[in-house]
Amino acid sequence: MSGSNSPKSVRTPLGRVRGLGSSHSGTSDFWRQRLTAVAMLLLLIPVIFIVMSVFRSNQAGVAQVLGSPIVAIVMLLFIVASVWHMKIGMQVVIEDYVHDEKIKLISIIGNNFFSAAVALASIYAILKLSSGV
Hints:
By secondary structure, the chain is an all-alpha fold.
């Protein structure tokens, strides 16, 4: 099939880079975002208790609370779910509202790097505090 109606000509440059045609990622992003939202809701109550318990503590007190493997794991799971949720949400906004394909691609790459940096910095902080170093 050739001409302007062929599937290859309908794909945007960003879609070709990502290996996707039109409407091939929307539902998976939708469900991943809902999954991360449910994970954050389930973890929210323990995280609130953890944060409230260390609210007026010094670094030694925070390290003592985070020294518990269960507390550190809950915090790490919350961080991962939150950052993943943030990344997906921002990517949807970029894909919906940025119309220039070059700027869209640069924005998505920037979103990925920013999300990775936030996740790594947060994970490092929790692991450092939980190890007491």
